[in-house]
Structure formats: C-alpha cells, structure tokens
Amino acid sequence: MAKVHNFSAGPSILPQEVLQKASEAILNFDNLNLSLIEISHRSKNFEAVMERARQLVKELMQLPDGYSVLFLQGGASLQFVMVAQNLLREGGKAAYTDTGTWASNAIKEAKLFGQVDVIASSKAQNYTFIPKDYTIPEDADYFHCTSNNTIYGTQMKEFPDSPVPMVCDMSSDIFSRRIDFSKFSLIYAGAQKNMGPAGTTLVVVKDEILGKTGRAIPAMMDYRTHISKDSMYNTPPVFAVYVSMLTLEWLINNGGLAWIEELNRKKAELMYGEIDRNPLFYGTVAKEDRSWMNACFLLHDPKLEPEFDKMWKEAGISGIRGHRSVGGYRASMYNALPLESVQVLVDVMKEFERVKG
Ligand SMILES: *Cc1c(COP(=O)(O)O)cnc(C)c1O
C-alpha cells in the first residue's frame, strides 16, 4: 500500500510502532491469550498499565510532589466543566483568555458556575494572534489559558507568572516541547491530538487547590474521587490509556521532550519557510504566535484550490483541509508526523508554484 502522509488535526497520527503493539495487545495482551479489552481493569496486568502511564507522565513533566495524574473520560470538553466546578468558589470569579473556539467554549461552561472575567481576547481579529498584554487579577480563584489553538493555529510561546493557580488546556500540544510544567496548578489534554486515541483525557492537578469551592460536586465530576481511586473509580477507558502509555514510552525511548522539541521545530521551520517563500500562499496568523502543531495557510487565489487539492491528494497527503471557520489549509504536525511528510507537502507546494506561478 502507498504511504499516507497523515496531517489530520484530531484524532491524529500515532507512531507506527505504537499502532503495531496496540493491535497485538488487542489479540493477545501480556501473553495472557486474552485481549486487552476483554480483561478486568482491576487485573494486575491492567493496573500495571495505569501505573506506568502515570509514571511516564510524571517523568516527562518532571513534576515536584503534590500533583496527581488522572486519566479521565469526557474529552477536553468535559474539563471545561470540571475545572470550573472544582475550582471556582461559590461567589468567586475566574480569569480566562479567549484565544479561540476551545477557549471560548471553556469560558461558556465556566459561566455556569460563577463570574468569569475575560481578561484578554483576540476574537475581534478572528483569533489571529495571542494576546500578551494583560494582568491576572490577584483575587481570581484561577487563571485559565489554552496553550495551542488547534483551529486557528496560534500557540503560546511563553506563559505568564500567575499570582493565582494557572490552569491550561494543552490538548493539542501536550508533550510537544519542553515547558516548566510546575508553573501550572492544573493541566488537561484530550489524548487524541498528541498522545493517543480518543477516549481518555489526561489531567494533572496540584492536590492543594481542590476542595475549596463550598459546593457539592457529584462524585464523577469531583477530581478528588478520581485521585482517591487512582483513576479507577469507575471503569477506565482501558484501550485509550494503554495506547497513550505506549506513545509516552515511544517519546521517552526516542529522547523525550528535548528530542521531540527539536523535531517539531524543524518541521515548523520547513513548513512556515515554504508558506512565506511561496508567492501563491500566505499564513493566517501573527508570525511570532505561529503554532508548531497546526500551520494554517491560504491560497491568495482561492479559485486554485481544486487544482492544489488534486495535487496533494495524489502525493498521498491526507487531512490538510482547513477548519470551516478559517478555510484554506491546516497542516497538523503532531509529534508522530515525520519530517519527511512535511517535506512531501512542501515539495507539492513548490511544484504547484512551478505549474501555476
Ligand atoms: C480538540 C480540542 C478540544 C476538544 O477536545 P474533546 O476531547 O473533543 O472534547 C479542546 N481544546 C483543544 C485545545 C482542542 O484542540
């Protein structure tokens, strides 16, 4: 079969060796002659998977004591709710930055639980940059930001020093670069962009920020329930956790965050270099805020799109149509995407220039 270059925005590309191991575990896990998905989550074999996944997260994040690592369900979208329900005090307020569709969804949900101050927004400019000039109020219960805006293709390169607990939605750039994770009190990420299959959400939370809201929280919605049961309060998404564990192992075995940061930098430089060089195309966001994960670009002449589409499809490229709110193209270059795939796309853009320019 011909090679497919998978630029899908999510669910997205996973390392081949991870897919290979995952498919083997579907048939015969740990030499039990049973499938991973037909054994008890309370078996020793699966408990070891959950424990290893937690340890790998801690190792990659280099976290000090006092944090819990959870694998939950409900996607990042449920975290929009759980964050506010668990952290926004009765009568309190939270500070948010509005940098894209996901950030604005998080804001909408938080408003169900109390006052939300949107302290910075790029909405009026169609989310084409990351606001940097804002002050986080000291009387907020927490500050929420989105590290990478998947749909618009912007990314925070630096994080503020927050006077209040900092919460971050890292769904689409988790483990893509080195970050001081200890700056954050809560990090969450749906697995399906950069860590594994859909079905589990990583939550890393500093224990001391919990239990202060004064409201009753249903057990399933309460982080403390899941912490006290090691993410096994109810049946966890066993397959999604297992594949996430394999992906984290792949990352560490290849050199960890320093290695992947360098690879992601190279991919982004190659991609944006061509977008800037090629007179037929242009990037949609402020250069300093460009995402290393999702590169959004347009053709100056949208009438050329069908011809360009034909060309990249023939080259084996998949998944670069832009989100409907931006149009054009979005090349998602998550961790598992090889540099070679970006080179194929760049070569197609060059060839398109040669025939059309
Ligand atoms: C995809 C995405 C979400 C939504 O994730 P679900 O798991 O589908 O709920 C939230 N935030 C960001 C930054 C995303 O990229």
TrEMBL record:
A Pfam family per the record: Aminotran_5
EC numbers, comma separated: 2.6.1.52
GO cellular component annotations of the record: cytoplasm
Keyword Nucleotide-binding included in the entry's annotation: no
Pathway: Cofactor biosynthesis; pyridoxine 5'-phosphate biosynthesis; pyridoxine 5'-phosphate from D-erythrose 4-phosphate: step 3/5; Amino-acid biosynthesis; L-serine biosynthesis; L-serine from 3-phospho-D-glycerate: step 2/3
Domain Aminotransferase class V: 5-345
Record GO biological process: L-serine biosynthetic process; pyridoxine biosynthetic process
Superkingdom of origin: Bacteria
Location(s), subcellular: Cytoplasm
Catalysis performed (reactions): 4-(phosphooxy)-L-threonine + 2-oxoglutarate = (R)-3-hydroxy-2-oxo-4-phosphooxybutanoate + L-glutamate; O-phospho-L-serine + 2-oxoglutarate = 3-phosphooxypyruvate + L-glutamate
Keywords: Amino-acid biosynthesis, Aminotransferase, Cytoplasm, Pyridoxal phosphate, Pyridoxine biosynthesis, Serine biosynthesis, Transferase
Gene3D superfamilies in UniProt: Aspartate Aminotransferase, domain 1, Type I PLP-dependent aspartate aminotransferase-like (Major domain)
Positions bearing N6-(pyridoxal phosphate)lysine: 193
One GO MF term: O-phospho-L-serine:2-oxoglutarate aminotransferase activity
Cofactor binding annotation: Binds 1 pyridoxal phosphate per subunit.
Ligand binding (pyridoxal 5'-phosphate): 76-77, 102, 150, 169, 192, 234-235
Known cofactor(s): pyridoxal 5'-phosphate
Binding site for L-glutamate: 42
Protein family according to the UniProt entry: Belongs to the class-V pyridoxal-phosphate-dependent aminotransferase family. SerC subfamily.
Free-text function comment from the UniProt entry: Catalyzes the reversible conversion of 3-phosphohydroxypyruvate to phosphoserine and of 3-hydroxy-2-oxo-4-phosphonooxybutanoate to phosphohydroxythreonine.
Subunit comment: Homodimer.
Cross-referenced PANTHER family: PHOSPHOSERINE AMINOTRANSFERASE
Protein's UniProt name: Phosphoserine aminotransferase
Species assigned in the record: Thermaurantimonas aggregans
